[in-house]
Write a structure and sequence with these properties.
By secondary structure, the protein is of the alpha/beta class. The chain has 35 helices and 25 strands. A hairpin with a 2-residue loop joins β16 and β17. The radius of gyration is 27 Å and the shape is globular. 50% of the residues are buried. The mean pLDDT is 94.
């Protein structure tokens, strides 16, 4: 349908938008103006298709709620899905502009921190492609995730004002504004029939303005909406204070409202930060709940059939307050009784858990909840009371009941609220699902086992293969005889029959080398780094966290440098280690690990012994567009998290799909990748979850373990001594050997180093490297987001 739009029509439309919106002709327009005009053209095409859709064609709608949507760049993605990418590229060239330069003008939509937000973005694409009527809900952060800058060998954070350049995608919907209330008091009123009414007074209002970003499914047959809420004050200025000369104070109410959507994940080491985060979460869910309910009434008329027409999927615990907020709306605005309202809520809301670490499960101070959300607090207390009664029927008054309460020890536990209310609780890999049932949520699983399941994460293979790796896409299409894999990713499996074909192997190596050349240009442009394109590209790109064990990789790299110094003539496969990671602004240990990696990179890259043999490159400001350059070029994928700590992971899938060979632990989605690949195509090492538990139970001593391995001891001495910049990292060493080695780096190091040697011994042969490349891509179709969304639709959403 959209593919019928010609390059001439696109060019004419862009010229029209340049004149209408920027008062400039194309020959005088800047690249940014060309980008903005092109984005407006594509957005208007999607808007017209959305308007033409039948508003009642779906009996049941999906509402995907996530604090993060890491969308990346949208211009080329939407053009691709609409089938007009060639027309857009041609039109830009006709206007005298290089299309790639225009695409580079678009900032990454930094509405997320990592895998959680990128997963949500992939799922939005699949839902639209598969024809599901779905709306994503989140916050329209003004600044989003920070820009990472390296200064004096350290990470620094700079505000990322992505929105000013992305306004072309955002459609403000003033007619759908809603009011969100904070603070105040609740006065109870009982009528003669025993009906309770809550009178809410003294509150502060904030206006939630929706800014819609349209999502085109592949083929352009379904346009869905990502609704992003922007916080505004109902009073933009206190005119009395302003007239009195109190200019700053006159803006106070406006400032306090707008700060709610200022940044993603404000630091919460202090009470002010905790209060702001809780405000963000309630603002987000209250606005979304009001929007969903209002649209339901307009479309279906009766609040009592709400659960028949809506499923609300909450992506991690951040949107948990949707549960008491829906109860508030049903009881206070639509006069339902508790039992009737609760029946609707528990049939409507499902919960995806994303962490196996109990310390990472959200909880809020009870006093803060009472102060900020007094009516919601009343409802949470009642949910907790009834949940307590239910638990005591099975567990009595013992520890099992106590640790599963929503309110205990002065805290409100969000995951426990999800366990009480949600009709499905799912993990994001099979291993993760088993851990939820057998460990993290084992008590509730005993009595509600039928509610627990898993859906292994998936990735948008159209973006993460076809778009970012056109050479590999062409090869797949040539071997299959068509491009049907774009909607049937299982057809990637056909490549396996070509694994031993010498001509296909040559072509796959050529594609990979071309991608490395493209990444080398990115590295030079982004960081001024000169990449050795003849070396194996060994990649670890993910959020910086201790359990992801970037420090374990650093230990191996330090050892390799010392081995080269021991024997400069040693037989050594040249390799470049590429890191991409941001550390949370307040996560001091993670920032120290980045500092160590930067120190080590500086030392190795200036070491004449390592020249053309060993490189380390830490990509500054890792983001979606950087991943799109790295992933097609990667040859080794480091998936080395501590077993039992990674819920799933999706970076591992993207790298596998683009042919990288995985070295990893049996953790998260690695387990299912291993089932697809086997020992001949994947390199596993390290302790399993049960082995870690056994080792700790038997008195694991990391200091003794480190001292018994000369290689580890030498690496730790090197870290403590420091690199050529003179910085010592003895604090990181002490944290491992005297701090219990929480994430088992010392325990796993020997197995990791030996596994690396096996891996490089195999891939030094180009024929074997090509075979591994082909097999990884061939076995990756199962990790497409289309498969995951199909499982959600069938097993959780009951569409």
């Amino acid at each position: 349908m959209t593919g019928q739009i010609s390059r001439d029509e696109v060019r004419s439309a862009i010229e029209d938008k340049l004149c209408a919106n920027f008062s400039v002709e194309s020959k005088n327009a800047t690249n940014e103006q060309i980008f903005q005009a092109t984005a407006i053209v594509i957005r208007e095409i999607m808007s017209r298709f959305l308007a033409a859709e039948n508003p009642t064609h779906a009996v049941k709608e999906v509402h995907y709620m996530s604090m993060e949507f890491l969308m990346g760049r949208s211009l080329m993605k939407n053009a691709y899905n609409l089938g007009i990418s060639e027309a857009v590229i041609g039109a830009l060239e006709d206007l005298g502009h290089n299309a790639s330069d225009i695409f580079e003008e678009e900032p990454d939509a930094g509405l997320g921190n990592g895998g959680l937000g990128r997963l949500a973005a992939c799922y939005m694409d699949s839902m639209a492609t598969m024809g599901m009527e779905a709306t994503g809900y989140s916050i329209c952060y003004e600044l989003g995730i920070f820009k990472q800058k390296f200064a004096d060998g350290r990470q620094t954070e700079i505000a990322d004002n992505w929105r000013s350049a992305a306004e072309s995608w955002l459609i403000p919907r003033h007619e759908d504004e809603v009011e969100v209330r904070f603070g105040g008091q609740v006065s109870p009123h009982w009528d003669n029939y025993g009906h309770y009414t809550a009178e809410y007074t003294g509150y502060t209002s904030v206006i939630a303005l929706p800014r819609d970003m349209l999502i085109a499914g592949y083929g352009g047959n379904e346009i869905n909406t990502l609704r992003l809420w922007d916080a505004k004050s109902p009073n933009s200025l206190d005119m009395f204070l302003f007239s009195e000369g109190a200019y700053v104070k006159s803006l106070e109410q406006r400032t306090m409202a707008e700060v709610i959507t200022k940044v993603l994940y404000p630091a919460d080491e202090h009470i002010e930060g905790k209060e702001l985060r809780l405000k963000q979460q309630y603002f987000f869910v209250s606005a979304s709940a009001q929007d969903i309910v209002r649209k339901h009434i307009k479309k279906w008329g009766d609040i009592r059939n709400f659960a028949e027409h809506h499923v609300i999927q909450i992506n991690d615990t951040h949107p948990t307050l949707i549960i008491p907020e829906l109860m508030r709306l049903f009881m206070d605005d639509y006069n339902l009784g508790w039992d009737e309202a609760w029946s609707i809520v528990r049939k409507s809301v499902a919960y995806t858990n994303h962490t196996v670490m109990s310390e990472a499960l959200e909880h809020w101070p009870q006093s803060l909840m009472q102060k900020l959300l007094p009516r919601v607090w009343e409802i949470i207390c009642e949910i907790n009371k009834r949940w307590c009664d239910y638990l005591m029927m099975f567990f009595g008054q013992g520890e099992k009941t106590g640790r599963n309460l929503i309110i205990h020890d002065g805290q409100v536990y969000m995951a426990n609220m999800c366990l009480a209310a949600c009709y499905r609780v799912n993990g994001v890999s099979r291993l993760h699902g088993d851990i939820l049932k057998n460990d993290l949520f084992r008590d509730v699983c005993e009595i509600r086992g039928e509610r627990f399941t898993h859906v292994t994460n998936g990735i948008d293979h159209r973006r993460w293969l076809a778009q970012i790796n056109p050479g590999l896409h062409s090869l797949v299409c040539d071997l299959n005889g068509n491009d049907d894999y774009l909607t049937k990713p299982e057809l990637l499996g056909n490549l396996a029959s070509y694994a031993d074909d010498s001509a296909v192997r040559e072509r796959i190596l050529s594609v990979k080398y071309d991608n490395k050349l493209r990444f080398a240009r990115f590295a030079k442009r982004n960081d001024g780094f000169t990449l050795n394109t003849d070396a194996i590209m060994d990649v670890q790109i993910k959020r910086l966290h201790e359990y992801k064990r970037q420090l374990l990789c650093a230990m191996s790299i330090a050892s390799l440098q010392m081995q080269l110094h021991d024997d400069p003539g040693m037989d050594f496969v040249p390799r470049t280690f590429v890191f991409g990671a941001k550390a949370a602004a307040g996560y001091k240990t993670a920032k120290r690990i980045i500092e160590l990696l930067l120190s080590m990179a500086d030392d190795i890259n200036n070491d004449p012994v390592c020249k053309d043999r060993l490189q380390v490159y830490f990509v500054e400001n890792y983001r979606v567009s950087a991943a799109e350059a790295i992933v097609p070029a990667a040859q080794v994928s480091e998936q080395i998290s501590t077993a039992g700590k990674e819920a799933s992971g999706t970076g591992c899938m993207k790298l596998m799909m683009n042919g990288a060979v995985t070295i990893g632990t049996l953790d998260g989605a690695n387990v299912e990748m291993y089932e697809q690949l086997g020992d001949s195509n994947m390199f596993l090492f390290g302790l399993h979850t049960d082995e870690i538990a056994s080792l700790r139970a038997n008195g694991y001593d990391p200091n003794a373990a480190a001292n018994s391995d000369w290689e580890i001891k030498r690496v730790f001495d090197r870290f403590s001594q420091g690199f050529r910049d003179g910085k010592s990292y003895s604090d990181l060493v002490s944290g491992l050997i005297y701090g219990g080695d929480q994430y088992m780096l010392v325990a796993d190091y020997r197995a990791y180093a030996d596994c690396q040697r096996r891996l490089y011994g195999r891939i030094r042969d180009n024929g074997e490297l090509a075979r591994l490349n082909i097999m990884n891509t061939a076995r990756s179709g199962i990790f497409a987001a289309d498969r995951a969304i199909g499982e959600y639709a069938k097993n959780i959403w009951m569409l």
